[in-house]
Amino acid sequence: MRRFAKGLVALAAVAGSGCAAEAPPRPAPLAEPADPVRYACNDGSFLSVRFQGDAADVTMVDGEKALLSRLRGASSVGYAADGFELWSRGDTATWTAKGSPATACLAT
Fold first, then answer.
1. How far is the C-alpha of 8 from the C-alpha of 15, rounded, in Å?
2. In 13-83, where do the E strands start and end?
3. Among 87, 79, 82, 86, which Cα is nearest to 99's?
4. Residue 79, pLDDT score
5. Which residues pair with 21 in a beta bridge?
6. Which of 36, 40, 64, 88 ranks highest by number of CB atoms within 10 Å?
7. Around 55, how many Cα atoms within 13 Å sit in the side-chain half-sphere?
8. Residue 79 φ/ψ, nearest 5 degrees
9. What letter does residue 82 receive in the DSSP assignment?
10. How far apart are CA 63 and CA 48, in angstroms?
11. Distance, CA of 102 to CA of 78 (rounded, Å)
12. What was the pLDDT predicted at 16?
């Protein structure tokens, strides 16, 4: 009888462990492009920025576009490419266009 009880306990442990196993996690769906953030800058310019992963797709008021790559900063997030630079923190940003001084911007 004792042998039967030990066998039954072992069988229950094996059967129970199959139920407790978790299914592998499903991969996350690819992120949809975020809605653009619109900035009004102190120099009178406007920007539309679509942040996507490690890139920022910037459209300037004159229709010129720039695809910027992410930089690492201590307290803000920066993006740069081809003479353009954008640093953002919360609703504020600093925008530098080719050959122009940096200007402060605010999300609208």
1. 10
2. 37-41, 46-52, 55-60, 65-71, 77-81
3. 82
4. 96
5. none
6. 88
7. 9
8. -140, 140
9. T
10. 10
11. 13
12. 47
Terminal-to-terminal C-alpha distance of the chain: 78
Q: Which of 86, 90, 107, 106 minimizes the C-alpha distance to 98?
A: 86
d(Cα 101, Cα 108) in Å, to the nearest integer?
22
Q: Which two tokens stand for residue 76?
A: 């803000």
From first to last of its 108 residues, what are the pLDDT tens digits of the chain?
455 444 444 444 444 444 455 655 655 444 556 799 999 999 999 999 999 989 999 999 999 999 999 997 777 789 999 999 999 999 999 999 998 999 999 999
What's the whole-model pTM score?
0.66
Q: Which residue has the tokens 């953030």?
A: 37
Rounded CA-CA distance 99/79 in Å is: 17
